[in-house]
Amino acid sequence: MTIDSIVPLRELVKAAGAMGAEAQRRMRLADRGYKDDGSVVTETDKLIDEYLFQRIAALYPQANILTEETVRAFDPDKPYTFAVDPIDGTDVFSQGMAGWCVSVGLFDDALSPIAGIVYAPKLDLLLFADVGKRATINGDKLSPPEPGEPLSDRSNVMVMSQLHRQLDLSKLPGKIRNVGSAALHLCFPLIYSGVVGSIEGAGGHIWDIAGAHAINLSLGFDLELLSGGPIDYAGMIDGSPVGDVILAGHRQRVNELRKVLTGP
After folding, report:
1. What gap in Å lies between CA 106 and CA 231, rounded to an integer?
2. How much is the pTM?
3. What backbone phi and psi angles, to 5 degrees, belong to 117?
4. 87 in the same domain as 165
5. Is 94 helix (H, G, I), strand (E, B) or coil?
């Protein structure tokens, strides 16, 4: 059975975001927990994980569902796959900050992103790309800014919080910014003219990236590996990280970022 639309998920993701926002209002720092890899987790991550899994499974039984907080079997015979991050940016979420979101991405049978939702309730930001359609922002047409001027001291680049441990950023002009969510970072160049690009670290997982990637693709943009070439999602369905730094933004700016980050 073909999936022609994920419109029914839009309200479910908004409901999940509302659940997260209410839980965050009541949260204490002591509610933070840690996974074996040292990343932060909360009970809210787990609750939203199960909430979305159950509802997506009921709506789209022909799809695999990969979620961050629960290991689930992958059936290669199913023609679609959802990747769900119940709270992308759990660390900032657990500290009462606004830069987190709920992210859902849909892949086809070739594991190419074809639809996505990124919802940041505390930022009042809903990015939605349905199957075969251009992304919208809060229901309105989304027109990415022109590439603007080359990298300069006035440029803003979104980066993951620990990127300085993976790359030498000393030659990167302008300012580096971080709100806490990989999905938001990868979408910000589509929204804000002052953000010329995004650099996400090699530890990103399929659920961190899928929704934002689909939104970028719907607008003619793509995510690129620092080393060149596409993201290999087939190697990530078991929970493995992407293994390379990801660049996002207008191709001209991405090429400039690559030169700065890999040059002598």
Report:
1. 15
2. 0.95
3. -135, 130
4. no
5. helix
